[in-house]
Write a structure and sequence with these properties.
The structure is a single chain. The chain is built from 8 helices and 14 strands. Helix 1 packs across helix 8. The strands form 3 sheets. A 7-stranded mixed beta sheet has the order 10-9-8-11-12-13-14, sandwiched between helices. By secondary structure, the chain is of the alpha/beta class. The model has no long low-confidence stretch (mean pLDDT 93).
Length: 320
């Protein structure tokens, strides 16, 4: 039986954040990419124009909030607004990486909850849905009053390490808050879990690993995290795992932000391989030999197809 779309023709457009990913999604869907202009004037004002009719269409806007973060955010807001004013039937913001996700609660006096503020902006601009991958904190879903489909790249990453057949594998969480993510990975790989206790010093991204819960003696350790930013946490975790007797260290993360000194830290570290996905584009200077990138385009493409045809997106968790 052929599914009947709930809206007219599916259309995928992209901003300037990650055109390559949008192209791969369209290739998976076997559909041409929608044509639009997104650029800055000399005064840094952003201009958006859709170059084809999107009235009553099911529009998907692919735009991870990657560097430069605030520019990409404004592009997304303006694309949504332009689509709304062009009478799109439904607008889904496809945001593979949701920046500001760490600011999800008031953990200090007089600080904002920026993840909620970004959610408000996306809704106010006119988005009808959000499609994303591995939010930093699950409660960010609750900041939206529109449907949110959060996919996970854990299965994709787990399949990769399963096929490597490493043996003697122990999955390591970078902190107690990431224990659930590590447990899900460990369950997929049939491996035990260990948890590193860390202390974050101030707001300047300085991290100190202080203890490890679990046994990594003689094991190949697989560190699991949702993102790698400056790599301070990743490298500190690798060091304490090796000090506790691990014979090799591998790492995986969904989002390869790799800002500041991250690339140099990873290159100089004892980590044998870091496996990430292409939710964020990697510039050539960040493509180290020890960094492996997997594509999330099939995962996002299939989710887009299911949203368009009114089928279950949750069923994807059993397939990917």
């Amino acid at each position: 039986m052929i599914e009947t779309p709930l809206y007219q023709e599916l259309k995928v457009f992209t901003g300037n954040a990650h055109p390559a990913l949008a192209g791969d999604i369209c290739e998976y869907l076997e559909k041409p990419q929608g044509q639009c202009e997104v650029f800055e004037f000399s005064n840094e004002n952003i201009f958006v124009r859709f170059l084809e009719n999107i009235r009553a269409r099911d529009v998907f806007l692919v735009q991870p909030i990657a560097s430069p973060v605030n520019t990409r955010l404004m592009e997304l807001f303006i694309m949504i607004d332009a689509a709304k004013r062009a009478s799109a039937g439904r607008i889904t913001a496809v945001v593979p990486y949701y920046s500001y996700g760490r600011s999800d609660k008031k953990d200090q006096p007089r600080v904002p909850i920026t993840a909620r503020l970004v959610a408000n902006f996306i809704e106010t601009a006119g988005a009808d849905r959000l499609l994303t991958i591995d939010l930093h904190a699950g409660q960010v879903q609750g900041f939206f009053n529109i449907p949110v489909d959060e996919l996970t790249a854990l299965s994709l990453l787990a399949h990769y390490f399963h096929d490597k057949k490493l043996g003697d594998l122990t999955v390591v969480a970078t902190d107690v808050g990431d224990a659930r993510r590590a447990r899900n990975m460990a369950d997929r790989l049939g491996a035990p879990i260990a948890i590193v206790e860390k202390r974050r010093i101030g707001n300047r991204e300085k991290v100190e690993a202080v203890n490890i819960i679990g046994d990594v003696e003689g094991a190949r350790a697989l560190i699991v995290d949702d993102e790698v930013d400056t790599a301070a946490t990743l490298v500190a975790t690798a060091e304490i795992v090796l000090r506790n007797g691990a014979k090799e260290v591998y790492a995986s993360a969904t989002h390869p932000i790799l800002s500041g000194p991250a690339v140099q830290r990873i290159e100089e570290s004892s980590i044998k391989e870091l496996v990430v996905t292409d939710t964020i584009p990697l510039t050539p200077e960040k493509r180290l030999p020890k960094i492996t990138m997997l594509s999330v385009a099939p995962l996002l493409g299939e989710a887009i197809r299911r949203i368009h045809t009114g089928r279950s997106v949750g069923a994807l968790f059993d397939e990917y």
